[in-house]
Amino acid sequence: MRPVPDLTEARRLFYETASLPDGLLPPSILQSWRRCRSFGLPMQARTRNEERLEATELARRREASADWLSLARPQVDTLFEQVVDDGLVVVVADGQGLILDELGHPAFLDRAERLALTPGMAWGETIRGTNAIGTALALADPVLVRGGEHYLERNRTLACAASPILDPFGQPVGVVDVSGPPRRVHAGRLQQVDAAVRLIEQRLFDVARAGWMTLALHPDASQLATPRAGRLAFDAQERLCAADRRALGWLGRDFSAIGHCRFADLFGETLSHWLSRSGQATGRLTTSGGLLSARLLPQIAPAASLPSSSRATPPRPVSANPAGPRGDAAATLAGLEPQWLARAVRLLEADIPVLVLGETGVGKDRFAQALHAASSRAARPFVAVNCAALPEGLVEAELFGYEEGAFTGARRQGSRGRLREAHGGVVFLDEIGDMPLAVQARLLRVLQERVVCPLGGGAPQPVDIRLVCATHRDLKAMVAEGSFRADLYYRLCHHPFRLPPLRARGDVGAIALALWQAHGGHRRNIVLSADLLALFRRYAWPGNLRELDNLLRTLLALYDDGTVLAPRDLPDTLREEMEDAEPAQPLVMPASVSALEAHLARHQGNMTAAARALGISRSTLYRRMARERA
Asked: Which segments carry the region annotation Disordered (predicted)?
């Protein structure tokens, strides 16, 4: 933890002389103080006329940042969960330092209000002096500002850690900040904030790189499939089109290289030559700073637009051969923690089976598709087998294959089986809880020995597969009752991912809009009206994501371009069911701050228990309380 020195004398010296001895302040803070002095800001001022944006203008500014805010929201919520119990607030501002949103512990929100650290207030350096939000934007780097390091006297009771969100072309689109009492905001907090921002930047990069050739880079080859890898994107002429800070840092470059450097300028050979030399999409590249491990990522199709604040980008290739997840598979991940997919990829790359749990219809199959597409095996087979859909007597033959004449009705030429069809790729065993015990034993042998023995006595065949399994059943209970093998369960259940039902994923309206965009509804200018989205939010969706997705596909097929869809356009039975239903749990919330506090009191102040009783996340409950207090 960086100590906070007694800055009273330093502030006095700077106020009187505009200079300080070396080492008394971090260089970034001293440079910021000098900038603030040049702005004519009164360092000793304790009060200041506050100008909060009108609600309509704040809404306009939020709308202008809507693209990147929607990508950032899951990671902001995760960061909030990490810091809220320490009495801190998470602040999100736009690229000009205007606060757009705030999530905070009630104990600190009142102080934040007094300090004008609330939505609608501007925190650029020219207005608030040295502060984490404004200074991070000025430096385009993470920054920690504690206590008296703030330029304005009135902010000395505050400590902030902030990191700017840079788009893949180096432009700041926003900033994420954690603020609170100085004793609780330290260098470790800054690392948390910056880690969250790097994940947000990766999501921005994924939107930007569609249709381009993208390299993952890292000095350590084992890190290429993790969020720690840097990335570069090139067009068909091998010109650098997008980059992130980490990759540019390893190359000793900055964002000015975008649009001006080609692959050969960075690595001393063309991309096509490197691919032919390495013989695969993974290898080593020589840079001015040494060797880097590199992997060519699968291309993806355009699925969304970049934030409007981004500058114009170089032209894209005329054609692309996407190998990534379909738009609807990617949209299925709406409402899920973004790091889940990254963690699942790391398990898959380490040859650890991935187990996905959840109710029927939550999107387990699409999570598996997205996992395959994000892995190094994206260009290899993805073989899905629904164990519940196969007759018990045919499961073995379907999975392991068979020799000619192995059983009555067997095909003359035999069958390779689904596991061998997936050689080099990924096998997805859906509803593995319905797999017969005898087949479970054979599957365990495949996982242990990496060979498949076809039915009918054929020679063992080696297989190279990665395994993803899914079920809506309680496998642990099945182990206890003897209907699922314990040894297979413990082989699969290293780090299970439980996908929440749709009713527990937050804003169902936002998820519906994400799916609608993935299906192309926006391109046909068919609009989901506010009344219709409100009805979606009210409904409990017993069929989960599958039910919502099927409904949206049906509406898209039935209505003409330019239609504004309203509740009357729903099938009669479904509309009546939605209108008659009790509000879904995520919206059964007290309507005032006093009612919210009374609800919290009934749970002895336990925010987790109170949020669970409402069917929402803690961050949603905190956000609602903050909104009611505003």
From this structure: 305-326
